[in-house]
Amino acid sequence: MEAPVALTVGIVFGAGVYLVLQRNLLRFVFGLILISGAVNVSIFVAGRLTRGASPFVPEGAVAPPAGSANALPQALILTAIVIGFGLTVFAIVLLLRTYERLGTVRTDELPERLDDPRPVDRNGDAPAGAPRPRPMPQGGTVPRTGPSGTDARDDGEGAP
Amino acid sequence: MLSAAVLIGFAVAALAPLATPALGARAGWVWALLPAGLATWFAAQIPQVRAGAPLEQAVPWLPSLGIELAFRLDGLSLVFALMITIIGTAVVIYAGGYLRGDRQLPRFYLLLLAFMAAMLGVVVADDLISLFVFWELTSLTSYFLIGYKHDKEESRAGALQGLLITGSGGLAMLAGFLLLGADVGTFRISAMLADPAVVQASPVYLPALLLIALGAFTKSAQFPFHVWLPNAMAAPTPVSSYLHSATMVKAGVYLLARLAPAMGGTAVWFWLLTGVGTATLLAAATLALLQRDAKRLLAYSTLIALGALVVMVGVGGPLGAEAMLAFMVAHALYKAPLFMVAGNLDHEAGSRDVTVLSGLGRAMPISWAVALVAAISAAGLPPMLGFVGKELAYETLLPHPWALAALVAASAVMVPIVVLVAWRPFAGREPRAPKAAHEAPVSMWIGPAVLATLGLGFGLAPDVLAQALLVPAAAGLVGAPVDFYLKLWHGVNAALLLSIATILLGAFLVLVWRPLHDALRTRFADVRVGPAGIYDALVLRGIPTVAKGLTKRVQSDDLQHHLLTITGFTVGLLALTAVVRGGPTLALPTVDGALHEFLVLALIVVGALGTASAHSRLRAITSLGVVGFGIALLFVMFSAPDLAVTQFLVETLTVIVLALVLTRLPSALLRDGEARGRSRLALVIAATAGAAFSALLLAVTQTPFDRRLSDFFDAASYPDALGSNVVNVILVDFRAIDTLGEIFVLAVAATGAYALLRRLGPRPEPEIAYAAPRGSADPAGDGEPSDAGTPGGRAADDGGAGS
Fold first, then answer.
1. Beta bridge partners of B69
2. What is the mean pLDDT of each run of 10 residues along chain A (160 residues)?
3. Model confidence band, residue B801 (pLDDT cutoffs 50, 70, 90)
4. Do the chains contact at B707 and A24, CB–CB below 8 Å?
5. SS3 B61
6. Could you read off the pLDDT of B25-81 as tens digits, one per residue?
7. How far is Cα B345 from Cα B343, in angstroms, rounded to an integer?
8. How close is the nearest chain B Cα to the Cα of A130, in Å?
9. Which residues of B touch A138 (CB under 8 A)?
10. Cα distance from B643 to chain A (closest Cα, Å)?
């Protein structure tokens, strides 16, 4: 059964690499998640697959029965899963922060935004007058008025 | 003792910065004791060296590589060593006066004395690698000394140019040394000289010769590498007179002379050296006519001398050796004083422009006298040593009329040069100078006076010099004992007639100098081709441009470009290895899975591909979740319950965090595209990477499995750690420190995430949403006017858009 799993791991890894190579940092994070999953499984496969024989020492014995699953890669993967989770969460939060601060998650737009940061306000939107981070294809035909309350009030006072 | 003589210079140099401030105005005199003492010691070795018993000393350095710190003092080395120490004495004393009160004088003495030690190392080294190390040390000290006035752009540019040109030549030379040493089996110079046939029969003879000659030519400022020497005149005058006329620039000549018995005598050798030397002669003679700065004039006259020396080494033979050595000693004895007098002009009269200064003879009589004595030698007039050297050079070149013609022409140019430097600024009644001139202090004329007098003395009695130094030195150059005697007057012969012709031509050049100079300056004013232009274009502009472009390409500030390069390169390398070396041999795998197992794998594949192609947030999260839970199922099926539990937990948390965060981001965030070419490239790279990963993993699973480590944990976990869950025992017992580290990593990640999140502030309350058009709240908070008021509706919207 190792061979089909190895092929699957390759596909997941390839999908992860593809995502990591995208300019959209959200996809980048998705790629990271896929790659860390693929790597975990690859360690698992490299330690060989065993069905229905978890590495437990039965009552009264001093060692797991012969033919039990390989415990060592499992221990390694357990660490890897948790660390991978830490990395993923940190990356996601960083991504969120980047967006709130710079209004984009595309790496090709980051340098210019870094030169001229336009912090979006707290509801995660660009302030009035600032160009939108990306042209957003909108499903509806809603007219775009000032997106925030402040803006709307300003409009009201400015045009009596 | 020999190694001590070389290395003591470095020790004293290290003291210089500490002691110089305390010595005050006497610093020059005190530090001159070192070169003076060394000169005395070297002079005391003359009898032994004359007797044909060179001093030798070898200290093992890198025995495993056959490299020794080997020193050998024979006749040739002795001439150079005496030149270095005697002129060094004069220069150190001179510098004390010239740079008196200079804030950086301690540093100056450090560099100057270190240079002297390194230069001594070059000329007495008997091991090619040791020689290279000392050689590079002279380049480095020269760099710092040219750039001494580092607040001046001109100094920095000159220093860098000198370093780049001599440094790259030095690297070529090192390559040549390594080629040669590896082929003949030794780095000992004396061993190579003892067996020239081996060197010349070596298959690497030609490349080694060319590379070593490159080092020598750059160091000795031969055409077309001569450009750095005139620009090195930005250095203080003591440096110019020492490094850039008397000693360092002769290192290349020394190297060629040193290797002449082993490498010389071939047609390549002859044509390479005489050709380059002649080109240097002609280029320097022409360019000298363009100069009006005393130091630059002297720099071009140094180039003329260096060209002549290289030609004579190329011609070789007893006569060539004799001529080369006499010419070189004469040059050192007249050029150093001339430089120092030019420095006196600059120092006491405020200018080195020979068209500005005149009539200073009354104010500076000693300097003038010194300048005149040196100038007569430089012009090659009797009864000076310069005359002897030039006569011998003419005699040597008689069989090669083209080289002779070049030397005669270049020697004629020496006449206007010395008239401009030693006559024009001093002659005349009315003193004309930027400041009121007066004689230089004793420290600034005693050295040049002694050197110029030596030139006169050796001119009157040349055979004293010849028997003591030149005959043993010529033996080193020829590779066999030679015998000759020198005299001032050879009677009327071809060489004398040529000398008379030279003087006449020189006198004519003096008469027409002004119009010729002006015409040439106008003609060459805007010329930017030639070696200097090539240096500017290639080194100053070309290399930085290429480096910048290359760096921008491979080290751009674009993360994805970076990743694309790295992954693409790695994958390319893998593919190349697989093609060249052959990939892993894979047996046809046996497939023994059950249906549900394949279903789980299919689920994972669908999830992965779904994530990669997702254009909506919901689809991406769902697909990621499918992959994660699929992996957890895999762990369940293959006996890893702990992993499965952890994976389920982590996956659930990941999905929750993602969902929470994505609601803060605009829904259209994933609807952007990539440029098509890039996207395709990424696809190719990703597919290759995936395939390579699979192949690697398949290969791993098909190698025999070594269970030793796992067996140890199985056997030890209950008896040693009293735990029946082997995985847990490994984590908390055998690898407890690892697990502690893991906890730290998590804590750091959590702290970082918290710090980032805290600055975001609270989620906006729905009350501000009254600005949204349909009055519907926007709970997602991404500021988009949404079609549906509920998160569920939004999710549906996303799902629809993504498909």
1. B59
2. 90 94 88 94 92 87 87 92 92 88 82 67 46 45 42 38
3. very low
4. no
5. strand
6. 888 899 999 999 999 999 999 999 988 888 888 888 888 877 788 999 999 999 999
7. 5
8. 14
9. 668
10. 6
Beta carbons of A85 and B731 less than 8 Å apart: no
Q: Are B628 and B651 in contact (CB under 8 A)?
A: yes
In the stretch 517-576 of chain B, residues with CB closer than 8 A to chain A read: 557-560, 563-564, 567
Band of residue B102 on the pLDDT scale cut at 50, 70, 90: confident
Alpha helices in B202-250 (DSSP H): 205-219, 228-231, 237-241
**Per-residue 3-state assignment (H helix, E strand, C coil) for A70-112:** CHHHHHHHHHHHHHHHHHHHHHHHHHHHHHHHHCCCECCCHHH
pTM, entire model: 0.68
Distance separating alpha carbons of residues B12 and B35, to the nearest angstrom: 11
Say how many CA atoms lie within 13 Å of A53 toward its Cβ. 13
Is residue B645 within 8 angstroms of chain A, CB to CB?
no
Other CB atoms within 10 Å distance of the CB of residue A145: 12
Q: Do A3 and B590 touch (CB under 8 A)?
A: yes
Of B673, B635, B604, whose CA–CA distance to A33 is shortest? Answer: B604
Cβ separation of A143 and B670 shorter than 8 Å?
Answer: no
pLDDT in tens, A41-58: 999 999 888 888 888 988
Task: Mutate one of B629, B638, B665, B676 to test the A interface: name it (highest A CB count within 10 A).
Answer: B638
Query: Nearest chain B Cα to A146, which residue?
Result: B771
Indicate yes or no: CB of B661 within 8 angstroms of CB of A96: yes
Residues 6+ apart with CB under 8 A from B581: none
Q: How many CA atoms lie within 13 A of B771 on its CB side?
A: 19
Q: B693: which 2 tokens?
A: 């990963």
Chain B residue nearest residue A141, CA to CA: B787
Q: In angstroms, how far is the first alpha carbon of chain A from the final one?
A: 75
Candidates B694, B738, B797, partner chain A, best to mutate (most A CBs within 10 A): B694
A129-139 CB burial, b ≥16 within 10 A, e <16: eeeebbeeeee
Helix (H, G, I), strand (E, B) or coil at B764: coil
Within 8 A of A133 by CB-CB distance, chain B residues are: 666
The shortest C-alpha distance from A158 to chain B (Å) reads 16
Query: In this structure, are residues B235 and B155 in contact, taking their beta carbons and an 8 Å threshold?
Result: yes
* Structural domain spans, chain A: 2-50+71-115
Are B769 and B776 within 8 A, CB to CB? yes
A2-50+71-115, CATH topology level? Helix Hairpins (1.10.287)
Give the span between the Cα atoms of B597 and A4, in whole angstroms. 10
ipTM: 0.76
Terminal Cα-to-Cα distance of chain B (whole angstroms): 88
In chain B, where the domains are located:
287-526, 711-760, 767-803
Q: Is B797 on the interface with A (CB under 8 A)?
A: yes
Residues in chain B: 803
Contact B452, B377 (CB under 8 A): yes
Give B656 to chain A, closest Cα distance, Å.
Answer: 11
Helix intervals (H) in B247-362 = 251-263, 267-288, 294-315, 317-344
Closest approach of A120 to chain B, Cα-based (Å)? 10
Q: Check if B710 contacts A (Cβ < 8 Å).
A: yes
The three-point CA angle B437-B438-B441 to 5° equals: 135
C-beta atoms of A79 and B634 within 8 A: no
B611 touches A at CB < 8 Å: yes
Of B780, B665, B752, B555, the C-alpha closest to A98 is B665
Question: Dmax of chain A from CA atoms?
Answer: 88
φ, ψ for residue B327, nearest 5 deg? -60, -40
